[in-house]
């Protein structure tokens, strides 16, 4: 068969476009885990993820109850719904874990992240960086003749968008805290 006949017989889709209709979709989930504030707990939680090949996209941890010696670990991870259920079940079996909440499925939540951006540049690039920072409500927390350090709080998507716009203007360094999240409402 000639190449022309083969070409005419093919559909407009390639084999890469074929999707298994039974395949589970990979989703991003934000988990809030209340744990004892003691040495080694964070290592055990991270060990669960690394030991099973689960990826952590964002991780924050801080003490939230000084008298009760409790910390809150907020983890953003990706996986199929069955993998996310596995992660939650395995987290719940770790002894110093008191609660595991999947903020993604439990209802509306608020997610914020703090980021610092170092941008170097002169002339028009410097002016454009300041203009964009104002639009994104980023604060200048340090300034020299060669650079700015901007501070911004927002959703991870907002942080990503600002970083992409700053790259051509001289973005040289980014520091991010990771996601902090709380469910909305009274409960």
From TrEMBL:
Group of enzyme by EC: transferase
Known EC number: 2.2.1.6
InterPro entries per the UniProt record, alphabetical: Acetalactate_synth_ssu (IPR004789), Acetolactate_synth/TF_NikR_C (IPR027271), Acetolactate_synth_ssu_C (IPR019455), ACT-like_dom_sf (IPR045865), ACT_dom (IPR002912), AHAS_ACT (IPR039557), AHAS_small-like_ACT (IPR054480)
Residue intervals passing through the bilayer: none
Gene3D superfamilies per UniProt: 3.30.70.260, ACT-like. Chain A, domain 2 (3.30.70.1150)
Pfam families hit by this protein: ACT_AHAS_ss, ALS_ss_C
Alphabetical UniProt keywords: Amino-acid biosynthesis, Branched-chain amino acid biosynthesis, Transferase
GO molecular function: acetolactate synthase activity; acetolactate synthase regulator activity
Entry GO terms, CC: cytosol
Catalytic activity: 2 pyruvate + H(+) = (2S)-2-acetolactate + CO2
Pathway: Amino-acid biosynthesis; L-valine biosynthesis; L-valine from pyruvate: step 1/4; Amino-acid biosynthesis; L-isoleucine biosynthesis; L-isoleucine from 2-oxobutanoate: step 1/4
SUPFAM superfamilies: ACT-like (SSF55021)
GO biological process, one term: isoleucine biosynthetic process
Positions of the ACT domain: 30-105
Signal peptide positions on this chain: none
Role description: Catalyzes the conversion of 2 pyruvate molecules into acetolactate in the first common step of the biosynthetic pathway of the branched-amino acids such as leucine, isoleucine, and valine.
Assembly: Dimer of large and small chains.
Family: Belongs to the acetolactate synthase small subunit family.
Annotated NCBIfam families: acolac_sm, PRK11895.1
Protein name (Swiss-Prot/TrEMBL): Acetolactate synthase small subunit
The organism's taxonomic lineage, starting at the top: Bacteria, Pseudomonadati, Pseudomonadota, Alphaproteobacteria, Rhodobacterales
């Amino acid at each position: 068969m000639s190449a022309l006949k083969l070409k005419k017989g093919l559909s407009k889709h390639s084999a890469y476009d074929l999707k298994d209709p039974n395949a589970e979709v990979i989703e991003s989930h934000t988990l809030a885990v209340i744990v004892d504030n003691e040495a080694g707990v964070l290592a055990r939680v991270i060990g669960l993820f690394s030991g099973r090949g689960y990826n952590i996209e964002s991780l924050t941890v801080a003490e939230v109850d000084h008298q009760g010696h409790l910390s809150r670990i907020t983890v953003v991870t990706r996986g199929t719904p069955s993998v996310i259920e596995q992660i939650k079940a395995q987290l719940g079996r770790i002894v110093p874990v008191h609660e595991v909440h999947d903020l993604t499925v439990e209802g509306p939540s608020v997610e914020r992240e703090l980021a610092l951006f170092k941008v170097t540049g002169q002339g028009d690039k410097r002016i454009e960086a300041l203009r964009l920072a104002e639009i994104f409500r980023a604060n200048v927390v340090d300034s020299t003749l060669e650079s700015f350090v901007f501070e911004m709080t927002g959703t991870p998507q907002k942080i990503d968008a600002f970083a992409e716009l700053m790259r051509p203007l001289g973005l040289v360094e980014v520091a991010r805290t990771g996601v902090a999240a709380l469910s909305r409402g009274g409960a």
